Structure formats: C-alpha cells, structure tokens
Amino acid sequence: MKYRIIHSTRFAYDEPAYDSQNEVRLRPWDRDGQRCVEFSLGASAPASIHPFDDFFGNQAHSLSVSGHHKELEIAARSIVETAPPLAPGPCGVTFTEFLKDDALRGRACFEFLAESRYVPFSERLRRFFWMAHPEDGEDVADYAVRMARYVRDQFEYESGTTHVHSSLNDILATGGGVCQDFAHLTIGILRLAGVPTRYVSGYLAPPPAGSLAIDITAQASHAWLEAWLPGQGWRGFDPTHRCAIDGRHIGVAVGRDYADVPPIRGVFRSSGKSSKMTIKLSVEPSEPESSGDPGAGQSQQ
Amino acid sequence: MNAQRVGNGMPITQALAAFERPMNEMFDDEGRARPECARVANYLLAMEAGRLAELGEQAHRMFLRMGVTFNVYGNESGAERIFPFDPVPRIIASDVWSNLEAGLIQRVRALNAFLADVYGPGEILKDDVVPRDLIVGSPQFRHAVVGIRPPHDSFVTVAGIDLVRAADGCFKVLEDNVRTPSGVSYVIENRVIMTRIMPELMRALKVRSVEHYPADLLASLRELAPGGGSDPTVAILTPGPFNSAFFEHVFLSQQMGVELVEGQDLVCVDHKLFMKTVHGLKRIHVLYRRIDDDFMDPVAFRPDSLLGAPGLTAVLRAGNAVAANAIGAGIADDKAIFAYTPEMIKYYLGEEPIIPIVETHLLRDPEVREMVLKDLDRYVVKPTGASGGYGVVIGPRADEAELEETRRRIERDPGGFIAQPVVQLSVHPTLAGADGATLAPRHVDLRPFVLMGAKPRVLPGGLTRVALREGSLIVNSSQGGGSKDTWVLEN
Known about the structure:
The complex is a heterodimer of chains A (301) and B (491). Chain A folds into two domains: 2-82 and 262-300, Immunoglobulin-like; 95-260, C8orf32 fold. In chain A, 20% of the residues lie in helices and 38% in strands. Chain A has helices spanning 95-98, 102-108, 110-113, 123-132, 140-154, 168-174, 179-192, and strands spanning 2-24, 35-43, 48-53, 59-65, 69-81, 156-157, 176-177, 197-204, 221-229, 233-238, 243-244, 249-255, 264-270, 275-285, 298-300. In chain A, strands 1, 2, 3, 4, 5, 13, 14 and 15 form an eight-stranded antiparallel sheet that branches. A five-stranded antiparallel sheet of chain A has the order 11-10-9-8-12, covered by helices on one side. A two-stranded parallel sheet of chain A has the order 6-7. Residues 289-301 of chain A have low confidence and may be disordered. By secondary structure, chain B is of the alpha+beta class. Helix content of chain B is 30%, strand content 22%. In chain B, the strands form six sheets. A five-stranded mixed sheet of chain B has the order 3-22-21-18-17. Chain B starts with a helix and ends with a strand. The model of chain B is unreliable at 1-19 and 74-78 (pLDDT under 50). The chains are: A alpha+beta (301), B alpha+beta (491). Chains A and B meet through strand 1, strand 3, helix 2 and strand 13 of A and helix 6, strand 8 and helix 11 of B.
C-alpha cells in the first residue's frame, strides 16, 4: 500500500517567540519492507534544518528558527510504501533455551532490556509481571503475542486518563490509558521477561474501504513496540489493537521509550506566558483508485 | 542553580592511609637527600630557623594580593579562600618525567581513540573488550552526541591525570579527569610566587617553565577550528562566579586573550554558534567549556538548564563549532571504565601501558564483590559516575557505622561502585609543626595536565597537592589540603 501522510504541528504564542531550537522525528523509516519515497519538512518561518541519524538509527532533523514569530507551523509530508509484515508465529525457542543467552543479550541489547524513564521497573510493574510471567516451556514469540493481548485485556482505552508524560505506573493505578501507555506497559513486561523490547512511534493508516474493522484509537498518530525474537529479529506488536502489526502500521522512530522519540522536542524564548499547540494529521491512501473519497483518511484535530 | 554542586570543584583527591612505609620523595631510607633533591635539601638545611616560615607567610600575602582564590561548596558564607601553599618545592628528575610524559600522552591518545570509537563504530564493544552495558548504561554516556566527531579526534583536549607515587617509588594512575579538569591556574601562580620567594634556588636549578601553558592551550584549541579554519575565534564558557573554579576561568581567559562567556551570552543561529557583543553577533568556532554536559544544551540534555546554549549540540553536529572537551567525554573517566584503560591502550595503540593504574575492582562481579566486602576496611570505595572525589569512602578511616552503610549501598547498587586497595602515597617534606616552622613529611599526589590538539603538549610537572595536617588523608583544599610548586628538572 501507498500512503500520503501530512503531519502538521502549529504553535501559537501570546507574545512573539524567538530562538526556537527543535529536534524533530517525523520521517518514516526505510526498513522491513517500508519505504519513505517522498519526504519534506518545512516551517512557516525562516528555518535552518539539518538532518541527522540518532543513536537508535532514526533519521531525525534539527530545526531552528531564530527570528521573532507569533506562530510556528512545522509540517512534515511523506509518501510511504508499506508491505504486509511477516505473519507472527512461534520462533521455536522456549524461554528455558532463550534465557541461557541472557547475560550476552544483557550486554548487546542493554538499552532495550534495562528500565528507562517511562518504563521504570517499579514494584507495581513487577507485581503485574508476576501475574503474567512466561512459562519455562513457552515459545518466546508466542509469549510476545500473548502479552500484547493480555495487557490490552486488563485495561480500558481511555483518552484523558493519562497524558503524554504518563509513566506506566499511571496506567497501572488508573486502569486505563492510551496507545503510548499500553506500549510502555507491555515493554516493561517483556523486558522483565528478558526479551529486548523497544518503543515505536508511528502512524496507523485507516482500515481499507469496506472493512468492518473498528478503530478504537480516534487518532492516526500511534505507538506500539518491537520485541527482539530469536530467529525472527525485531517484530512489531500493537497492544492497543491486541495484535502483531499489519500493513497499516507506518513506523517513524524507535527508542527506549517515548522520551527518545517525541515527534518534536524543543525550547524557545519568549516574554509571553503561554503557547498553544495544535496538531493536524492525516494518513490516507495515496493511490487514486483507493482514495476516491477524500474523507477516507482519518484526521485528528 | 545546582550546576555548582554537580560541576567539577577544586581538584580533590585522597591521600590514603598508610600500611607500608611511604616513599619519602626527598630523602632515602638512610636520610640522605636523593640526587635530584640534593640542592634543594642543602638550601633548606642552610636556612636560618624561622626563615622558611617567613617565606611561607610572604607567599600567603602574595596570593591574597593576586586574588588567587577558590570557593568552597557547602560553605554558605560564600567566602572565597586562598588555596594553602607550601613553599617547599617538589622535585621530579628529568628521566622520571620523560617516562611519565610518554605515559601520559599514550594514555590520552588511547582515551581519545576510545571516545571516537564508542561515539562512532563501537568496535571495542563488538569485540567485547569493554562490556557494552558498562558504556551504554552509564549516565556519562550521551546518546545525543553519537556521530559527532571533533577534528583530530580530540574529544579530550584537556586532561588532568591524577597520579600517586607508591611505596616502591613507581607512579600509578589513580584516576583520569577528562570532563572539565581544573587546577592549572594554581600551577602557574605557584610558579610566579616561587620565582619571587626563592629566586636564587630557581636560578641555580634548571627548572622547566610552566608559563607557556595558556599559549599551549590556546594553540591546541585553535587547532580544533572547524574545517581547519585559519583564524578561529575561541571563547571560554563558564557557569559563572558561583562555580568553584571561576577564578581559573577568568585567569585563563585573560592569559589567552579570549572572551569569557556565560550561556546567556551565546546564541545558535543557522546552525552556527555566536556570542552577543555590543557590536552584534560574533561567530565562535571553538568553545572551551567549563560546564558539565547536562547543562550544555536544554534541547539535548536538562531542559531546565539556563547555563548553556539551546541548539549547541546541533551546531556541533553540523560541524560549525567544536566544544572542548567534547560533550560525552565523561564516559572515558567513569570509574568503572577506568579498570579497562590498560586494555584500551593495548587495543587501540598496540602498546603496553607505560604508567600502570591503581588496581581497580568492579563490584558488579559477585566474586569480586564478596572479596572486597569481606575486607572493606582495606579498600577505598568510589561511586562510578561521580567526579571530584564526591562520595568516596576510605575504608581504613571509616568507622563501623560508615562501613556498614557503604556495604548496604554496594549491595543495593553493585554496578554503581568500584573499590581500589589503599595506596600508600609518597610523602614530601612540608612546612608544618605546632610552630609552623618545622619540616615534616606530608602525603602528596600529582595532577599533570595534558593537551591534545593536532599534537600533544604536556605541562611539565603539574599540580602537586599536599595534605597539610599531620596524618591527614585528604589533600582536599577545603579540608586542610594545599599545594606545592612542582619542579621538573631539565637534563
């Protein structure tokens, strides 16, 4: 499938802002059958933009706007081709076998096995893990699938119960959260089980026309996770939708957790007190035959 | 504003407790002056009683007049103090120094190769010479600077390598300081004072000069100009007057004739670094920074920092400015990484280490931990991430409650600590005694300064720190530690 993505973030300030320095992660990646065939990043004010590869291999951009501006819109436009990912299946390795190499992986994949800012190994998380820990004879890949479902079954999808700076303790306490919280929680469980796991920031394309699938996420900006499975490598799982990723998942960046991959992170100077951020996002099929209806895409205001 | 707490303070080290007889650097076991010290010993012995104390007094008054001071953290009065000075010089023979100099250059070369590697291809991690989790898991590892490579691989442009001299007379490395090492201003000021109070002795001995350090530092910094620019602008970035080493920041900016700036003076425009001047913006090519990584850039590091320049990391990445020392260099002086430095020298340079390190045990290894915890009172325990001597526990000097607390802290976070056996520091005759006029042996250490631009430059000698109180184990300036002038003799 081919999708057109327009992701615009508009900041409006009560007093002019200046010296705005930002780090942006908005370019969909090129790997695992996904190709970003077109990408442009622009700003509504004169900006200096430098691309770079970050520690996790994401293509990021540094974007700086020096002059005074009352508002700033940062817009990324991409055209992405996706291929259906490999179907999930057992990897043929049980936890007993898998954990024999635990020390080795502890070095090679340290950052994806250790706790991180949004995935602290809290008492709450440990207790939750003990209710769901893998059996010795369980296939590692099967466990990852089981957890992506299990986590979602325990909690409600509730926007508003948590916020962008929520840690997984919040979802464990409130019993509800959004895709980011489900991802963090599942990451925590898989890491405690010894499976290297990383956070994915990306988009979810609308279901094909005529499909009966119901999206509980009313937004196209999405988060899921990738677990490292023996013999299979990094495989994507979407706990929000209780499934392995399918061709509608468009990956942008990976990191230890949300803190490594926010779409835009930055600072600015202003004498004002407040700023307002508005996000407009649309993900829609870019082929004419599949997008005859311009309303087919999802958008979020 | 807790940068001042986190930042490198005054040079601090530990003069460690004695089990074996320490080496006396001036006199041998029979009480004869060592050959390189004979002249100084005769000079001192020929002095009238009270004369040396007078010279000490004179030196103290000169320091006050020159305003050579430091701030003491935790001293809320904020009063600046004089770094106590001992007028008895420490002598280093030329052959001993040549060997040390070669060893120091070798060491800093290896540390730079290591930094180029871990922030680049990571070969040493793939080869498992240094465990990858020690690097990636260290708070000193800065993910945000991966891929940034300064000219000449000069990640560490200024290094302060702390050396101790053991009972057998051999120098050993106690720790590396490659973030924002301080203390060099005292070396230069001490020499100015010595030239005035003992001019005849200075003339009689051929002592290698230290006055050229600021010129060497400036030359090294200029060699880092992005794209090999021929007329780069250099500036020093200071956290401000509350920093313990602020005197040194001012001193070096005056000596080098470069601007001293604070974060608020800097701005990044079009991925270039500028300082604000009355004439408008002036481009900066090389920033000699004396503030910690965390405070350098709120975009990449602590978002609440007002001490650095927003966007600086992106400017460095774009190759339009260079910071010395590089952001992230602290991973090379992490106390746990220190244990691997001899391996690093072999791995990158294919050479045997010229200066050995003090034996260092990583407490994350259960067997090592058991061995150390059994005899904790014989070890010095240090937190891996901290610099400047913070959080160090000296086993032989700790009481049972302190040892118990240390044991608990180690059990809770074994990876957070290393242990080193107590090293018997050498002693040096020092003005002391109740009357303040007697020579008595006191523990000393040495911090040489190594510059690495396009080529290495080593300051002859370095900062000798001395524990002024009898039996004192700490040469920490805020706890009765002082300094001596260090004389490296010419051939």
